[in-house]
Structures are given as C-alpha cells and as structure tokens.
Amino acid sequence: PPLAEQTLTKKRYEIQTVGYPSIGPENAPVVIVEFSDFNCQYCGLFARTTFPVLMSKYPKEIRFVYRHAPLGPASSFEAAQASMCAYDQDYFWEYHDALFENQDRLGAELYTEIATSLELYLPAFNTCLENDGFIGSCRDTPHIWVCFLPKSVFCAHMWKNHGNSQRARYGFTN
Predict the structure, then answer these.
(1) Angle of the 108-117 helix axis to the 122-130 helix axis, nearest 10
(2) 55 contacts 47 by C-beta, under 8 angstroms
(3) E strands in 88-149
(4) CA 20 to 30 Å from 46, out of 2, 8, 55, 143?
(5) How many CB atoms lie within 10 A of CB 73?
C-alpha cells in the first residue's frame, strides 16, 4: 500500500546479550546492541567518535553489547575471531579499540602486535586464533539495536527489515 495508508506496527524482540562482550552496568536502563564489522569504515567511525562519547556521557545509564556481523573479506572474520580471543583474556574492549584504530592494517601481523602490546598470554591467544569457534558463518549488514529495560523492548534500529530467519540467527525472538 502507499506510504500514507501504512500503519506502524511495534514489535518486541528479546536480543541475546549473555556471553557477548559488554560494557556498562548490568542493570542499565538502556541497552545498546551493536552488530559490527572491524572492516567497516562506518563502524570504525562510530567506534572512534560516537561510542566513547556515549559511554563517557552516560556511564551508568547505558550497557553496550558488541556482536559480530563480519561482511567479508576474510580479514573481517579473522579480526572478529582475534577480538574474541582477547575477550577470553578479558581484553575485548582494548582489542576492539586497537582494531578500529588500525583498520587499514587488518591481518595476522596486526592481531599478534595488538595481543603483544596488551600483554595477552600469546600461546592461548594463538591457539584460539586457529579455532574459529567464536565466528561461524554469520553474514549481514552491520546495525545497531537499542533496547530499554526491564523488558528488552525493540525501540530503534539502523538496519533494513530482514526476515525472521536472519533475526533468529542472531538470537532474536518476537
């Protein structure tokens, strides 16, 4: 139907956040879930400019959850895997920042360089890199979901309307 005849429908989504990197209080009234790609220039711009401002301005009001949506090339998946290997050692956000600061250098050399600079335990990090258990075959457009607690109510998103199968892949339920 023409736009004038369309009605707005509200949908609620429960978004899986447990087990994913997050920052901010568990009981924050606002939860922002970003699906991102370390190769995406717009994601990098957000990570370097908007994200730090949000978190410094609203440290007690926002819980930010990072979910991977690598678009490819291979370095997108490798960078996502490397960040989760850093997550295993409680250094996700430092690794996240370093990857976005060095988007033009994504590759094995950079991943090891960052791990070394953060003083990660390299044998465990390297073993983790060889296992792609964190990053399956997810492919989608990076986007952001904003939810308000106590119910995870879908409020706004920067993502085209995709079918239920794609939402289900990321753990959303209606």
Answers:
(1) 150
(2) no
(3) 143-148
(4) 8
(5) 10
How far from the centroid of its chain's Cα atoms is residue 58's Cα? 19
Contacts 24+ apart (CB under 8 A), 124-129: 124/85, 124/88, 124/89, 125/85, 125/86, 125/88, 125/89, 128/81, 128/84, 128/85, 128/88, 129/78, 129/81, 129/82, 129/85
Q: Cα 66 to chain center, whole Å?
A: 3
CB-facing half-sphere around the CA of 96: CA atoms within 13 A: 24
**pLDDT > 70 fraction of the chain, expressed in percent and rounded:** 74
CA dist 100 and 7 (Å) reads 39
Q: How many CA atoms lie within 13 A of 26 on its CB side?
A: 3
Q: CA angle, corner 84, sides to 155 and 101, nearest 5?
A: 80
DSSP string, 122-135: HHHHHHHHH---S-
